Amino acid sequence: MRLIAASVVLNEIDIIEAFVRHNLSIVSKLLVIDNGSTDGTRQVLQSLVEEGLPLEVQDEPTVGYRNRLLFQNHLRKLAIANPEIEWFLPLDADEFLLAENAQELIPAQATPESPVALRWQSFASTSGDDAQEQNPVRRVRHRLVEEGWPWTKILLPRSLVLDETVKLLPGQHGVERNGQNLEPVFSDVQMAHFPIRSPGQYISKVVSHVLQKRAASELETAPGWIYRKPFQLLLDNPAAFMAYSHEASQRYALPDGLDFKPQLTENAFPYRGSELRYTPQVDDLSRGWLSVLRQAIRMADALRSCSVSQSNLSLTEQLQQMQTLLGERETFAWVEIQKREKLIAKLEAALKVQEFDLAECQRMRNSWTWKMGRLIIGPVSSLRRFTQRIQQYGMQKREQLREHRHWSNSPRVLIGAGGTSLPGWRTTDGDILDLRNRGHFANKWKPNSRAAFLAEHVWEHLTPVDAITAVNICFEFLKPGGRLRIAVPDGWHPDPGYIERVRPGGSGPGCDDHKVLFTYESLGKLLESAGFEVQLLEYWDENRHFHQAAWSAEDGPIRRSARTDSRNAHGQLNYTSLIVDAIKPLPRSRVNQLLDRLRRKWLSKFAPFTHAIGQIRS
């Protein structure tokens, strides 16, 4: 199996030679893209090429942090130039494969369409590391017992590298297609990670990264979250930064606020490369600060080159100069521009065709044939539209009549069914029958037409104003003698736990929507205000005594009642409801109505005399 690894590096002189020698013992070829190193990394890479290793080095001295675009473009070109390569592995200079050959990296269940994920095994520097050991992967001998965050590295099959809809996520920790993450197949092989090897190297790493980010385009101006706090610490207190470097190596790339206590174990890394030949012996701190200084000089030179004599250059020449300086000759930005230019050309061609069609239509409108045809087709078209409207009107009326018949055949209505169905009852929910909306009732029934309404644990979800409206609407549409049976949580229940579960804003299910906690007095007065005659079926009074009248489930079953709720087994009333029947009174006889009118007339006529007599007596 053929596998190529590729990496973008910047100022990694302490580890670059060990990185190349070790990983080339496993992969077929290694491509290293130097991002403008100033610490001697490029010279070490050139010496390794001259040694005859299967190593290809390219230069992309980009000012600004666009490595992801550059890297993916190079991977695609590499795949096109090497048709025999099956897999492509993005690597950073601090990542070392823990395998003996490339075949071990690919799990058996992997397919040519699935990415493969390699888990990190993080190594951390300590104050006891041997400073005389030049090879950092031999010097750093401790690793984390358990990873603080499950970071992985993605290994890509050839098909995904060539797919233009596929994009690598930052750090090559994942991959997506058309904005959707692709789930990887996990490999049994791990990848050793040496992010922080010494204080001087950590200075170079943090400062180089932040300078690159700040020099990037306006879309990428903020430094990465891994380096914000260390960079600020270096500015505020360099001594504290130096002391923090070993702790930072144990908590590298962990999200802020993560509760993780790293534990180390001594476990030397099995380095497979040959001895280092080109890595220079330099004082650690001197190497770090020299790297930072050279990086700043390079960026200052780039800025000076951009600003000097630009007034004498044409716009095209300025763009070419900026393009050369920023190292973006072949980034995806130019590919996207070419795609947009092709799309614009297609749109312009379509507009020309449309203009021709419009001109042809205008010519036809001015012709004698068109004008004569309109005299015939116009009235016919109008008649056809009129006929269609008549048909649509008839269909709407038939649908309304069918709906009306559907609801008229249901004298008993279950309000707020919530998926419950009862034989002989028409079930409704809030979207079909809103208790606060008289129009919902009027569209289905005539007033004084329904025999019964049943609402179990519905009224507590209404505000006091809405509760009054709902009671009056039900009274209007019930026929005389009709029944409104209501069950709600009982505000006089003696159990504090019950009250906590049912009160507005309580801890029970659905309590976040409860508006009122009724008692038998408040619910009774509410129903009587609408004209109902109230019959209390089950309730607790203010003295915490439970009252229960005989009632029939045929008139409306209540599941959360004293006699039917399973929580009330063995005679313990753990969960009951306030259950009330509201009866719409029958109309009075004509004689009684006449007597009522006479009584009211007499009282109004003699009211002044009655009032005067009362005052004399007082």
Automatic annotation (TrEMBL):
- First and last residue of the signal peptide: none
Under the heading Pfam families, the entry gives: Glyco_tranf_2_4 (PF13704)
What is the name attached to this protein's record?
Glycosyltransferase family 2 protein
Which species does the entry assign this protein to?
Telmatocola sphagniphila
